[in-house]
Every structure is written in structure tokens, then in C-alpha cells.
Amino acid sequence: MIQAKHQRLVLILSAVGIILVAVFLAGYALREQASYFYTPSELAGAGVGPDQAIRLGGMVQQGSIQTAADGITVNFIVGDGKATIPVTYTGITPDLFVEGSGVVAEGRLAADGLSFVADNLLAKHDENYMPVELEGLDKEAIAASTAAGAVRE
Amino acid sequence: MIAEIGLGLLWFAAALSVMQLGLGIMILRDRESASASAFAATLRPIAVIQGVMVALSFLCLIQIFWVTDLSVKLVATNSHSLKPWLYKLAGAWGNHEGSMLLWVTVMAVSGALVAMLERRISQAMMIATLAAQAFVSIGFYAFLLLSSNPFERLVPTPPEGAGLNPLLQDPGLAFHPPTLYFGYVGLSIAFSFAVGALVTREVGPTFARAMRPWVLGAWIFLTLGITAGSYWAYYELGWGGWWFWDPVENASLMPWLAATALLHSVTVLANRGALKAWTVMLAVVAFSMSMVGTFLVRSGVLTSVHAFAVDPERGSFILVLLAIYIGGALALFGLRASTVQEGAKFQFLSREAALVANNLLLMGILAIVLMGTLYPLVTEASGTKVSIGPPYFNPASAIFFIPMVLIMAVGPMLRWRKSDKAQLTAAAAAPLLAGAVALLLVVIFGSGAGILPTLGLALAATLAVASVMPLFRSKTNRASLPIWGMVVAHLGVAVTMAGMASESAFTKETLVASAPGESHQVADWTITLLAVEPVAGRNWTALEARLSAQRGEGEAIELAPQARMFSSPPTNTSEAALLTRWDGQLYAVLGERAPDGRWQLRLWWKPFVPLIWYGGIMIGFGGLLALIGRLFQLRRTRPIRKVEQASEPTGQTVPA
Question: Where can this protein be found (chain B) (predicted)?
């Protein structure tokens, strides 16, 4: 029979052990699985490979949304005032996904590295909500490319 | 006038909580003096009056929303005279200020209930508990009164209000925040009990029995809140997913994980007198997770599809509260942990040991979720923006979850204190067989199911069989209500797992642009688009698709997904159409109109997906059974089972 004092020690050691395992595991997985956020201009010099899951954020350029012949694929251009990149997305676009508005696209670079294939689009929920990641964008560039009043802080 | 009365009541209640804390400290410092015992009798009434005052204040806020008094800023920014009555009511807590008032209200009313009903713990511990409760409340009163006054007037009075976010205009969501808050706040009571027990050095079975109903209650509400939130996200966002590992979702999952661990360890302490320091620490951790969750949701520091109240000042306020409460409790724990009595002994192969292992694995999952949720904040401080999603959370948490389910299966069949291998083998045979059969079936028939879903289905079968086995044991352990509660809750976990695994393994999706009259296949359903027509509701207009769904040669059933437009605030929402069958759900979303006039349709067949939420309801119901059982035990005047340590200060003496 284990002594009570030892039992407490065993309990504490196993607790510390489990937490350490969890932390190391998490740390390792986070390095592998975190998807990084870029704006088009940051992406240009980031050296991101085509397999890496990333999030691309910026404004949907005026006049750039085009629906493909199948009716469910959209092509549009995302810009941050300094650079732009074409994006392809297949699926139903979120509410309030409109030209001149902020968008975060989850996905990866196409094999040629020149365009972006999105698996998921996140747009503003309503006129008060803006993806937090877009806050650091050049406000003047946004204002220039956006209908008045569509973006608030 | 009502707004001023509400604010006055709130200040009054805040003053009472300051009094409650001050008097409590005074009495505890000098317990023997005559004045202390005279004051001691006043503490319970103070707590009760505080609860009544805040409840009245909250009623004032509801009244203001009910009549849409636009001269109050909160109403003007969150309500609208044309809103349906349910959302006018829910508007009272569907915003930052109102929800914080709700928080304080629930907390003060719970404190009042403790003061009125709790008779088992010593007077000193009651005083310490009420003082701790007041200490926590004061921070939230300060937060409300200094930075988030819900009764603030707006001059000039606007002609009309701005409305409630249409995504929140949903009956399920109207009651979602209160449900979660009951959970969070229940954990604050458990926290106060733990502080009270540490201060008076009375960490023992009596403390555990006093704390247990609160932990159970909090856990039930959190369970139901998470289940409802998941279902809301599933049908309201129109993305067809039931869990996104969104920071706001994690904010409610983390306290649930801690509360689940606490619930199991408090049972060990109440029944067997073991795991004393561990239980106290879990109570601190559980409430800390409520606070972390509140901080994450309220501060606006996170990128989330449903974060609200973006306000750095408020975020730092909650961060300070977080530091004071958690830091203070951990410091107290550090000072007093060594004086907590040694718990009763148990062997490696015993119910206690299984519960400890389960607790540790839950803490492992909690650590994984916490790190994944906070990591983006940490990297953001160094200028890198990242997002963490299912590719991280799913495998990392599964590593702890899978062994936990196995322990969950055998644990209830082990004896307290000491079991033997023969008994374990006999108990594990049937569940393992069920798991093996399920595994075989999935491998043969469910081609293409991934590793995790396959394992999930096998484990669900194992756990389902194991869960009901305690009902068929010898008469020495005849099934009391708490045992039934455990059986139902564990079975609920199996049911939820089966639903999750089935949905991720076998969902079929069809995404098309469809002209009226065209038919499309998803699984064995044929869906025909009949027409798309405009319709109007009370405060919205919509485009509604009429779809006809036919399964094989069966009868055609009409479905009507909508794309809704709200004018105030201007927002679009997607109302998915759901068709539930015994073996799954058909899910249809109407998208945009393509330039050539066709309509985008997204169709899913999700086999057994409702099991996810049925299981959640079962888990909560199991908790309810246990809670009712415990409350009945309270009423019964039978002698307390003699398992306490001889050194228990409460007086019951028996060798372990």
C-alpha cells in the first residue's frame, strides 16, 4: 500500500507531468499548425510555399468580383493599398461580402504562387464588425477604395 | 425615472457588498470577541438584501427595454421599437452592459441563496465564504458602475433605436447568454466556498458537500449553454459546422472542462475524504477559466466571428480583475495548501485513481485549448498574426480525449479505495467487445472515414455499453438518482461522440448554381429548385427558395431556405432549411444569384448529426438527476456516511 504522503507526491508529479506533456505537445503543434496572417503586400515578400495554410486579409477591389461560368466560383482581387493578389473561391460567399469591403480569406497560394485559393471567406458581420486582423491596414488606402461609411473602427 | 431607480439600487447593492466584505474580515480577525459574534448574525441578512437589491435593479433594466425607453443610451443603441417582444426582453442582456448587470445579479442572488439555505458548514466558514463572494462581486460592481453603466441617459433622445444584431435575433440565442452566465457565476460560488474553506482551514467532506450542488448546477448550465451555442452556430451561420474552435466557443469550453474535473474530484472528497488540496485548486482553476473566458469575449482582443464589445479600456479592467482574483486565490492556496490535511489513501487500481487520471487528462485538454486560444494573442504582441484552427485543436485534444474515454468507461465499475484485476477484466470485456465490433463495422462499411472519426465511433460504442453497466451491479450498489445521473451523462457523451464522428466521416455535400426546375442529388436525396420568391417578416425582408426534397421514391417534402435582409442595423443573414430524419439531417442554404440568373444552392446530408445535441442534452439531464438526488439526500435526516478523517475539525470521527 502506498503511503499517503507518497500518494500526494505521485499525484503532484503526475499533474505536472501531464501539463508539461500538454504544453510541449501544444507548442510543437502550434508551430506546425498555426496559419499565419498576411496582407497582399506582406505576402509578396514572405516566401510562403503553396502547401502552407495562411490567412489573407485586405479589401475587395472595386469592380473585381466575377462569377465563373459554373455559377459558384468567384474570382476577385484583394488589395491593401500597396499590393494586390487575385483570389479564387468556390462556394457561397458570406453575407456582406461586397466590393470595397474587408475580407479575410483562409486558404493557400496556388501552385504558381501568383494567386490565392480560398477554402473559406470571412467578411464583416454587420457594419459594426470588422475582422480585427484588418485593423492594422493603411486606413487611407482603405478609405480611398471603399464606399463612404462602410468601414468604421 | 426608472433608470435612476435602477442605478440607485445598483449603488446600494454595491455598498452592501463592501459592507459584507469589511464585516466579514473584521469578524474573522477577532473571532472570539463579543462584538464579532454580534456582527456575525448580520452577515447573512446583508447578503440576502444585496441579492434582492440587484435583482430589482435588473428588473428596472428589463422594464426599460420592455417599453423601449430610447432616452436610455443602452436601449437606443441596442433596441428598436419594432422588434418582437422576445428580443426586446432579451435585449436587456444581449449587450455588454446588460450582460454584466445580469452577471452581477446572478452572482448576488446566488450569494443570497447560500446565505439563506446553507446550514452544514461552520459559521466561520460561512462568514469567510460570504466575504469572498462579496470580494468577487465588488470588482464587478466597480466595473459596471465605473465603466459600463447600463442606465446611462442619452441626450437628446433619438427618434428610433439602432436595433439588435439580427444574428442574435433567434429564440435560442435569446436565452443563450443567461444560460452560460448561470454556469460562470455558479463557479464563482464554488470559488468562494474554496476560499472560505482555505481561510478557515476546513477543507474536508463537509465543505465538498456544500460546494457540490453549486458545481453541479454550474456544470449543467454550461453544458446546456455550450450545446445550444453549438446548435445555434450550426443552423444560424449557414456554414453547416457545429464546432469551430472559435475563441468565443473556447471561452465557454474551458470553464466546462475545469468544472467537469471539479465535479468528479468534489465527489471523491465528499464520499471518500480524499483529493482535498486538488479539489480546492480545481475550484480556483474553474473560476479562473470563467474569468479568462469573460476577458476573451469582452475585451475585443480576439479575432472571432462572434466577438463583441470591442473596447480596450474594458478589456484592461477585466484583466485587472482577473489578476486580482486568480492571483489572490493562488497566493492564498500557496500559503495554505501545506496546512490542508492529508486525504484518505487509495490504491492504484481504484475508483479514486480512475477519477484522478480522468481529472489529469481533462487538465491536459484544458491546457491544449488554453494555449491554442492564447497563442494568437502572444504572437500578436510580437507583431505576427496567426490563427489557430481545427488542424491544431482536433489532434492535440484527441491525444488526451481518447484515453479519457477509456478510463471513463472502466472507472465507474471499479470499487472505491481498492479493486482487483479480475474485477477490472470482467467489467471491461463487454464494452471492449462492443468497441471492436463497431470498429470492424466502420472499417468494412464506412469506407473513407478518417482515423479520428473511426476511432470516435468505436469509442462511442465502448463507452455506451460501459455507461449502462453500473445499473446492473449487485444490490449493495443499487442505483440511486446520482448513479442514474452518471449513467445518463456518460451515455450522453457516447451519443455526442457518435454524432460528431458520424458527421465528420459521412457528410455528403453538393454545391451548385441551379435554375428553377433543375434537380440535384445529395446522398440519396433528390432536391428540386421550384422557385425563388420574395417574402417579408416583421422587421426583415427575404428571398426564399422553395425546394422539393425527395428520398428515393418517397414523398416530396418542401424546404424553404431564406436569405434575410434586416434594415436596422443593415445586415443579411442566412436562414438554412433543415429537414430532420431519424438517421440524419438535410441542410439547405440559399446563396447569391449568379449573373446568368441561376441561384447558388448548398446542400448537405449529415448522417446522425442531431446526436451531437441530443447527447449534450442527455449530459445536462444526467447532471440534473444527480443534482436532484443530492438535494434529496440533504433533506433526508439520515446519518452522514462515516468516512471522514479522524482529524476533521467538523467533528465526525471515524477511521478511514
Answer: Cell inner membrane
List all residues of chain B from 581 to 610 with a beta carbon under 8 Å from chain A.
589, 591-592, 594-596, 598, 600, 602
- DSSP 8-state class, residue B588: E
Instruction: For residue B494, give the nearest of B529, B523, B469 by alpha carbon.
Output: B469
Question: What's the alpha-carbon Rg for chain B, to the nearest Å?
Answer: 27
Nearest 5°: phi and psi at B299?
Answer: -85, -20
Give the strands of the sheet with B599-607, arranged side by side.
B508-514, B599-607, B584-593, B577-581
Cα angle: B636, vertex B642, B643; to 5 degrees: 125
**How close does chain A come to B511, measured CA to CA in Å?**
7
pLDDT in tens, B69-90: 888 888 888 888 877 888 888 8
d(CA B575, CA B450): 30
Cell readout for B241 is: 459546422
DSSP B471: G
DSSP labels, B198-213: HHTT--SHHHHHHHHH
Q: From CA B276, how far away is CA B67, in angstroms rounded? A: 51
**Cα separation of B560 and B549, whole Å?**
10
CA B148 to the chain's CA centroid? 24
ipTM score of complex: 0.78
User: What single-letter amino acid sits at B532?
Assistant: V
CB B153 within 8 A of CB B3: yes
Q: Is A96 on the interface with B (CB under 8 A)?
A: yes
3-state secondary structure of A133: helix
How far apart CA B217 and CA B114 sit, in angstroms, is 13
Q: Which residues contact B117 (CB under 8 A, 6 or more apart)?
A: none
| A113 backbone φψ class: left, alpha, beta (φ>0; ψ -120 to 50) | left
3-state secondary structure of B271: helix
* pLDDT tens readout for residues B313-334: 777 787 888 889 888 888 888 8
Give yes or no for a contact between B645 and B344, defined as CB atoms under 8 angstroms apart: yes
CA distance B558 to B529: 10
Torsion from C-alpha of B428, B431, B436, B437, nearest 10 degrees: 150
Listed by number, the residues of chain B in 506-565 with a beta carbon closer than 8 Å to a beta carbon of chain A are 511-513, 563
Confidence (pTM): 0.89
CA distances B244 to B230, B379, B389, B589, B630, Å, are 9, 21, 7, 19, 35
Backbone φ and ψ of A132, nearest 5°: -60, -30
Please confirm whether the linkage preceding B395 is cis (ω < 30° from 0): no
Peptide bond into B534 cis (omega under 30): no
Nearest residue in A to B515, CA atom: A71
Which of A5, A14, A71 is facing B594, going by the closest CB pair? A71
CA B409 to each of CA B402, B429, B432, B483: distance values in angstroms, whole numbers, following the listed order:
11, 11, 9, 14
Q: Per residue in A30-66, is it b (16+ CB within 10 Å) or e — as a string?
A: beebbbbbbbbbbbeeeebeeeebbbbbbbbbeebbe
HSE-up of B190 (CA within 13 Å, CB side)? 37
